[in-house]
Amino acid sequence: MSFLDRIAECNKHDPALYRPFFAAGRQVGSVRHALAERLARMPGIFLADGKSVTLLPEFDTVEKRSTAIDKAVRALEADGIVTGRRNENYPACPEWGRAYDFVIERAAAPHFGIRSFGVHMTGFTRKADGIHIWVARRARLKPTYPGMLDNTVAGGQPVGMGLIDNMVKECGEEGGIPPEIARNVVSVGAISYCMDAADGLKPDVQFCFDLELPPDFTPRNTDGEIDEFFLWHWTRIADTVERTREFKFNCNLVLIDFFVRHGLISPEHPDYLAIVEGMRR
What we know:
With about 280 residues, the chain is an alpha+beta fold. The protein has eight helices and 15 strands. It folds into two domains: about 5-10 and about 115-280, Alpha-Beta Complex (Nucleoside Triphosphate Pyrophosphohydrolase), CATH 3.90.79.10; about 15-110, Transcription Regulator spoIIAA. It has helices at about 5-10, 35-40, 60-80, 165-175, 180, 235-245, 250-260, 270-280; strands spanning about 20-25, 25-30, 45-50, 55, 90, 105, 115-125, 130-140, 150, 155, 185-190, 195, 200, 205-210, 225-235. Strands 7, 8, 9, 10, 11, 14 and 15 form a seven-stranded mixed β-sheet that branches. A four-stranded mixed β-sheet has the order 2-1-4-3, covered by helices on one side. Helix 1 crosses helix 7 and helix 6 (about 235-245) packs across helix 7 (about 250-260). The longest helix is centred in the N-terminal third of the chain and has 17 residues, at about 60-80.
C-alpha cells in the first residue's frame, strides 16, 4: 500500500453508471440509472429520459427549486432510498463562489451527485521530536463511517455560513476549542476528489485549515460525534495512512496534503509529483 493507493481510492469513478442531472439550465450533478428511473415516476418534478434527468424549468427560483427537490427527497426517504437525514441544507453549486441553484438535504446530496463542500482542520503541536497531530476517532454509533479515525476537526459546509465561521463552530463542537484559539486557524487550500459511493457520487471539495495548538491543550468533544482523541507523532499517522484504511477516506487526503505542505513528504519521494497532482481532481 502507498499514499497513491489512498488517493486512488478517493477517485474511483465510473461515468457509465450515471446520467447528468440538470437544473436552472446547467448540470448540477449526476444520478445513477436506477434513481433516474425512480425520479421519472415523480410527476410534475422531473423530466427524465435515457440520457439525463432535468428539474422542470417551471421551478424558476431558488425557493421553488428547493421546494421541489425537498419533495423528491422526502419521497425517496419514504422509499428507504435516502436515509440518515441530518437536517442540514447544502447548496447545489457546482463551482464554489457562484450562486447556488437550490438547497438539498445533506443526506441526499450524493444520491443526486451534488458537489458537497466541507472544512477539515489539522490540529498539531510541536515537541522536541517533531510535529504531533491530534487524531479523532469518530463515534462508534455515528451513522456514517462509525469508529474510523478522522481529522482533528471536520464538518460539512452548510448554506448561509462562511467557511471561517463554520470552522470555528466545528472547532467548538467537535474539539472543545474555544473561539479565541480557533480563530487562529490558517487557511491552507483545498483538496478535491470524485468517487463512487454506496449512496451515489461524491465529487467533493474539502477546504483545509491548520491550527497549531498550545502544548498543554487537549481537545474534548461536545456534540457526541467523536469518541476520543489521540496525540500521535506524525510518522505514526503517516504509516497508518500509507499502510491501512483506518482513517475515513477523505481524511487521508487532508493528512497527505499536510505532510506535503510541511515538508514531511519531501520532493525526493519517488511519488512526490503524483501525490501532489492527485490531491486535486
